[in-house]
Design a protein that fits this description.
Number of domains: 2
Shape: elongated
Radius of gyration: 24 Å
Distance between the termini: 66 Å
Structural class: mainly alpha
Number of helices: 8
């Protein structure tokens, strides 16, 4: 009787597009779970399915990292799917957000803002100095003499959390 009740409920729920059951079935199809049957899930099978989902996501993440021009600076420091060490530099959420947004390219440097205006990468030059270099994260952190005051503040602040910075 329980199986019949479940089958009726399954048919009804499948008609509703955003139901729990339809989402589970959709995930099983997307991830190509072998022999997926919702009626006989065990903890071991759930762990197995979660592992398959993690593996597929890591492959997706690696593919995205290899093929994204926007993540060029991020790839300089990040090449594996593990928590980043900079997350331990500070416990202050606002400072963690600053580091993260800079690292993923969510800032106002010309390398990023030029993308919005569809300016070719080679023409996204630093408007602050006359060095004729692309204003990117490396230029900001290392080269630009006009950013030295801001850069020194940044370095000093980060040295308090990590002496080798």
């Amino acid at each position: 009787m329980l199986n019949k009740s479940f089958s009726c409920r399954k048919i009804f729920i499948m008609l509703v597009k955003n139901s729990y059951y339809s989402n589970i079935i959709g995930m099983s199809e997307y991830y190509n779970f072998p022999c997926f049957n919702l009626t006989c899930l065990t903890n071991a099978k759930i762990k197995h399915y979660v592992g398959l989902m993690q593996q597929k996501y890591i492959l997706y993440w690696q593919h995205t990292m290899q093929n994204s021009a926007k993540l060029k600076f991020f790839k300089t420091f990040k090449n594996d799917y593990t928590p980043s060490s900079y997350l331990g530099l500070t416990s202050k959420l606002s400072e963690r957000k600053e580091l993260l947004t800079f690292r993923i390219g969510n800032h106002k440097l010309r390398i990023e803002t030029g993308r919005y205006d569809q300016i070719p990468r080679a023409n996204r030059l630093c408007p602050i100095c006359a060095c004729n270099q692309i204003e990117d994260e490396s230029h900001f952190l290392i080269c630009c003499n006009k950013y030295s005051i801001l850069r020194n503040k940044f370095y000093k602040k980060n040295r308090t959390y990590h002496s080798e910075f």
